[in-house]
Amino acid sequence: MSEVAHSGGGVSESADARAGNPMWSSRLAFILAASGSAVGLGNIWKFPYITGENGGGAFVLVYLLCIAIVGLPILIAEVMIGRWGGGSPIRTMQWLVKKEGLSRHWVGLGWLGVSASFLILTFYSVIGGWAVSYVGEAANSSFAGASSDEIGSIFGGLLSNPWQLFMWHSVFMLAVVMIVARGLKSGMEKAINILMPLLFLLLLVMVGYAASTDHFYAGIEFLFAADFSKLSTEAVLSALGHAFFTLSIGVGVMFAYGSFLPKDVPIVKTAVTISVVDTGVALLAGLAIFPLVFANGLEPGAGPGLIFQTLPLAFGKMAGGVFFGTLFFALLVIAALTSAISMLEPTVEWLEERQGFNRMKATIVLGALAWIMGIGTVLSFNEWAEFYPLAFIPVFEGKTIFDILDYLTANLIMPLSGLCLAVFAGWFMSRKVVKEQLGLGDGVLYDSLIFTLRFLTPAAVAIVFIYNLF
Questions:
Q1: Which of 18, 103, 113, 168 has its CA 20 to 30 A from that of 424?
Q2: How many CB atoms lie within 10 A of CB 380?
């Protein structure tokens, strides 16, 4: 078996019995890896936008409260369960069910996480390919002096060309496979130790440039000026939903990453740090983006359009636009790549354990499968744009393959997985194990965490689930 393969045998083995497996080299390595998974495309465009549109500083305060109620407790629970079980999400739940004498239905929690991360990867790779393509467009001065219609035609041309989308999807997926195939130490940790500091550096350079413009204060005001009149029910639900989705919880990633976490690393403190890094990157992205948008008299449009249509127009008008445009899309590729490698890891772990594959073979097989399934997303934007395979089911009527995958993962599997995680950790895990894993004794912190996991988190995730469903 390769360096990250978990040992074979029955599910009764404990994490202690597999102590020879590789671990993150340090707490910092785990923080960078988990933060890399959490920091993705949504941090760059979605969080800054919904913050500015929903009350700025007032929204940030609500969002931080939602992180404390939803994101942080589930992150702690997932890492804790992953480290205790020491294997893939599926195998971990098999071992815990047997050890604790619980219903085998709880193994479904592991399957939910693994399926979510893999399905997301199949279409996330295509979106990551957009970013790779735009690095080249920016470097080739395609945005210089371009009008809004010309910028729109670049994006429209990319989406309408299946061969071009296919090529960039393939390039992105190949990079993911090459990193994951090399294992924990030589692959993921080494790549993350380079990519995450580079992401922070590029982000700070972009913020530094934005600070030199006359509209930096407008960006700060858009993001941080507290306007409580904009805190509608919709805004609170947006904060609640983003707090759940932003930390890569409910997709098996933190199960898998937690299985490599040394026992002497404090989980609660580390989870708080990851949450702070994730939120900090999102706010820095806003400080980098919105001064450029305002400086060029553009509207901070929501969604991918902000990244692939509005910002290129700003880069085309500004001095040094070729350099900073290339820099920005390189940053976007890094954010997408660090998230994507974490999405492949849970299924690779499972295939190594279940079928006895070595690391290289498991990664190639699953990477190839994700790549093939991603072709459905590629075609959803062009040749199959009017192909609705599940139109006979009312909720999927009018949805392409891409829309179906997005809906299944974001609206169904992830919230259900998060809900089950909170209930399992809050109600079914041994109190003794929880205290040992978290390094907590009886006290306010422990009581608050258990109360949150038992009552507040499930209620909040249920609201997210119902809100996204309808």
A1: 18
A2: 25
Tokens standing for 317? Answer: 């008008």
Take residue 18 and report the two structure tokens written for it: 């597999």
- DSSP annotation string for 352-396: HHHH---HHHHHHHHHHHHHHHHHHHHHHTTTTTT--TTTTSGGG
341-368 pLDDT, tens per residue?
A: 999 999 999 999 877 789 999 999 999 9
Q: Tell me the C-alpha to C-alpha distance, in Å, between residue 213 and each of 289, 296, 306, 323, 328.
A: 12, 11, 19, 16, 16
Q: How many CB atoms are located within 10 Å of the residue 152 CB?
A: 16
Give the number of residues written for the chain: 470
Environment class of 140 (CB within 10 Å of its CB; exposed 0-12, middle 13-18, buried 19+): exposed
CB-based contacts of 27, cutoff 8 Å, min separation 6: 265, 266, 270
Q: Which of 155, 87, 426 is nearest to 309 (CA)?
A: 155
Query: How far is Cα 318 from Cα 295, in angstroms, rounded to an integer?
Result: 9
Query: 436: number of CA atoms within 13 Å, CB side?
Result: 9
CA angle (118, 121, 123) in 5-degree steps = 125
Give residue 30's pLDDT band: very low, low, confident or very high (50, 70, 90). very high
Residue range 218-231, pLDDT digits in tens? 999 989 999 999 88
Give the residue carrying structure tokens 């465009």: 45
Indicate the angle between helix axes 27-38 and 190-211, nearest 10 degrees: 60
Secondary structure (3-state) at 311: helix
Q: Whose CA is closest to 344, among 192, 127, 187, 119? A: 119
For residues 442 and 448, what is the distance between their CA atoms, to the nearest angstrom? 11
Q: Please report, for residues 287, 292, 295, 445, the alpha-carbon distance to residue 217 in angstroms, rounded to integers and kept in the order given.
A: 9, 11, 11, 39
- This prediction has a pTM of 0.92
